Amino acid sequence: MPGCTPRHGSVWQIAIVCVAAAWMAGILEAQGRGQASPASVRPPQTKTPQEYPAAQIEAGRTQFAAQCGFCHGRDAAGGAGGTDLTRSMLVAEDTRGDRLGPVIRAGRPGQGMPAFALSDSDLAAIVAFIHDAKKQVETASGGRRAVDPSDLQTGDAAAGKRYFDAACVRCHSATADLAGVAARYQGLQLLQRMLYPGGPGRGAKPARAPQTVTVTLGPGQTVTGRLAYRDEFTIALTDASGWYRSWPASQVTFTVDDLLQGHVEQLGKYTDKDMHDVLAYLQTLR
Predict the structure, then answer these.
(1) Could you tell me if residue 146 is inside a domain?
(2) CA–centroid distance for 96 within its chain
(3) Which residues, given as ranges, of the chain have pLDDT below 70?
(4) CA-CA to 116 of 20 to 30 Å: which in 46, 61, 67, 217?
(5) Among positive and negative, which fits the CA dihedral 35, 36, 40, 45?
């Protein structure tokens, strides 16, 4: 993305995800994923009215569209997978980035939002655009439009296949578990499944696949089951018979197998181009 060199990824990571993910999922008071923002509901009043230079707002519009638009919509009023930031209490209570800035930079990967390594000027521009978008909504009517499909169609499928073959084939196969994935999921939904395979429900955090744990009690003595509880003092599981078993963590050794951990770790490795490219490749798997 011009003017920015994100260390943790980009627009494509949020998903959920934004995935879905997400997202600012769970952080920016979602008004309902996949729904039009209800124009009849007035945005919360801005705590501290703010004005920004037109040039800074326009710079923020470009940055926002590239980094956040696929999820939150190009006008910040929500999209198929993201929240309506113009009706977010976090935005309403923000003063020149004092609340938005830490969330954008730190992210919330567990809720579908990655961290963004933005320069001070890029971050300030995005904040300016979000506040201006909120101001525009306060005097406008009508729900928001759908996410522009072109936001999801800019990758290089051949480059995405090379990335997939290097980073993903340990767990996935284009001819097995991912065969026909583009026929089952399209657009933003495919991106969301790519980032968080467990998938979030409406208004919920992304679901996680069951974690398994193997506890070693001594030479040749191991117990395996579904992880039931874990903290710095205790490790517990539910075994194949349904029994709950626990041990002091300091007295045993154990390993936890989280099927989605690879996706969580990948969020910190993707570049903007990687995400565009891998999504483009997945869109060919029909």
Answers:
(1) no
(2) 24
(3) 1-42, 79-82, 108, 110-112, 140-151, 196-210, 259
(4) 46
(5) positive
pLDDT score, position 20: 35
Place of tokens 């938005």: 100
Shared domain check, 184 and 91: no
Q: What is the pLDDT of residue 71?
A: 73
Half-sphere exposure of 106 toward its Cβ, with a 13 Å CA cutoff?
Answer: 9
DSSP-derived pairing of the beta strands 221-230 and 211-218: antiparallel
- Give me the pLDDT at residue 273, please: 83
Q: Is residue 1 part of a domain?
A: no
143 domain-assigned: no
Domain around 248: 211-258
Q: What DSSP letter does each residue of the chain carry, written as one string? A: -TT---SS--GGG--EEEEEB---TTTS--S-TTS---TTSPPPPPSS-----HHHHHHHHHHHHHHTHHHH-TTSS--SSS--GGG-HHHHT-STTTTHHHHHHH-BGGGTB------HHHHHHHHHHHHHHHHHHHT--S-PPPPPGGGG----HHHHHHHHHHHTTTT--TTTTTTTHHHH--HHHHHHHHH-TT-B-TTSPBP-PPEEEEEEEETTEEEEEEEEEE-SSEEEEE-TTS-EEEEEGGGSEEEEEETTHHHHHHTTT--HHHHHHHHHHHTT--
State the pLDDT at residue 11: 43
